[in-house]
Specification:
There is one protein chain. It is built from 8 helices and no strands.
């Protein structure tokens, strides 16, 4: 499936939900106020504000994009990293370091982990042949998984 196709269908579903919610809200306001407050939702500006708020509540926008990145990062991590670092990020003692709770992974600055992933270190190979967006998704995933609570990484930071 083309990546944009899923978003378009999702956007259409959300738009349909907004339309149904707007109609239901208009009907409720009309029934509770004798029809006097219906005009509040009729202006384009107010309707836009309402739709924007509903988009955030419905899971669209930056939060949804963040979830997509974490899902892609998880999938890429599983494919390229979990053999050595294990699916749970615990690694293998004295062979491959754990990533769960690792101070380098949790560091405020993502630069050390970016450098390790792109250049390699000791027995870990370089993953520089991967696209920056893939590496950013992997690094963002490991900086969020297993109780790690570190900032996301952008493809621009990985370049």
């Amino acid at each position: 499936m083309h990546a944009g196709h899923g978003r378009a269908s999702s956007a259409l579903e959300v738009k349909g939900r907004f339309r149904r919610l707007r109609v239901a809200l208009r009907e409720r306001v009309a029934s509770e106020s004798g029809g006097e407050a219906v005009h509040v939702l009729a202006t384009p500006c107010r309707a836009t504000i309402l739709l924007s708020a509903l988009a955030v509540i419905a899971g669209c926008g930056p939060a949804a994009e963040s979830r997509e990145r974490l899902t892609r990062g998880h999938d890429l991590y599983t494919t390229y990293c979990s053999r050595c670092h294990q699916p749970d990020g615990q690694g293998y003692a004295q062979v491959f370091p754990n990533l769960a709770g690792n101070p380098i992974v949790k560091n405020r600055s993502p630069e050390p982990v970016i450098e390790i992933v792109t250049r390699g270190r000791a027995d870990m190979p370089s993953f520089s042949e991967h696209r920056p967006d893939e590496l950013a998704d992997i690094i963002t995933y490991i900086r969020h998984a297993w109780g790690n609570d570190a900032s996301a990484v952008t493809p621009a930071e990985v370049k």
